[in-house]
Amino acid sequence: MTAKPSVLFVCVHNAGRSQMAAAWLSHLAGDRIEVRSAGSAPADQVNPAAVEAMREVGIDIAAETPKVLTVEAVEASDVCITMGCGDACPIFPGKRYLDWKLDDPAGQGVEAVRPIRDEIKARIEVLIGELLPG
Question: pTM of the predicted model, to two decimals?
């Protein structure tokens, strides 16, 4: 049996896109994939509009807190996904790096966050198919 795959989502503040992506992956893949998220300059709290948008689909991220990006988090992950914010991730051989160009929900209302949430879900579904074939 192979070790379960691990994914790290990175955006600057770890308050919106990366939190939603981590929540979707945990929700849809259960414990079959290890999930991490972090930011290079973490915010004080998760974006309230992101919390509300996820609550609308039955996922509660209100208790999450933004975390600082560490070299160890990148080293421990098989796939590192940045959220279209130009974040510099440490590069390690053998890791898979993706950059998802997504609108930034910072300062937006829940109406603007919904399409970002839905696009993240679609990308997560594809990612799960790649990481967990069959």
Answer: 0.94
Encode pLDDT of 38-71 as tens digits: 998 999 999 999 999 999 999 999 999 999 999 9
- Three-state secondary structure string covering the chain: CCCCCEEEEECCCCCCHHHHHHHHHHHHHHHHCEEEEEECCCCCCCCHHHHHHHHCCCCCCCCCCCCECCHHHHHCCCEEEECCCCCCCCCCCCCEEEECCCCCCCCCCHHHHHHHHHHHHHHHHHHHHHHCCC
Q: Examine the residue annotation and report whether 80 is marked as an active-site residue of this protein.
A: no
d(CA 48, CA 55): 10
Tell me which of 89, 102, 110, 120 is the catalytic residue. Answer: 89
Catalytic residue among 10, 12, 85, 124: 85
Look at residue 16 in the predicted model and tell me its pLDDT: 95
Catalytic residue among 7, 10, 11, 81: 11
89 counts as catalytic: yes
